[in-house]
Amino acid sequence: MAIPTPGRPVRGSRSGAPIMALFDLLGRRWGMGILWRLSEGPCTFRELQTRCETISPTILNRRLKELREALLIERCADGYKLTDLGAELYGLLVPLGSYARTWAACLRAETDEA
């Protein structure tokens, strides 16, 4: 399966809007998780598999290939690391992670009140 590409149909967008292509890529099983774990620093395949806990070697291999093709990660002397583009994307995801924690707390509070 080819990586989601802006300008080509992707999940949720026949036109392949760039944001939808990015969401399609990151929404694949472990896509965002790998990016998140590599933000901790470069690591080998085995280290990354340990950081991701439940990922299978097959899925890890597939996602690494896709994320390399998308120019978000690259091979290095220590295994794999974020590219400048990948690090920039991670920086944009951090506030989303913060928002997600706030959202989760609001949902819990609403459930506790019910």
From TrEMBL:
Pfam families, per the entry: HxlR (PF01638)
- Any one Gene Ontology biological process term? regulation of DNA-templated transcription
- HTH hxlR-type domain location, by residue? 17-108
Single GO MF annotation: DNA binding
Query: Does the keyword DNA-binding feature in the UniProt annotation?
Result: yes
| Span of the signal peptide | none
Write the protein's name: Helix-turn-helix transcriptional regulator
Question: Which species?
Answer: Sulfidibacter corallicola
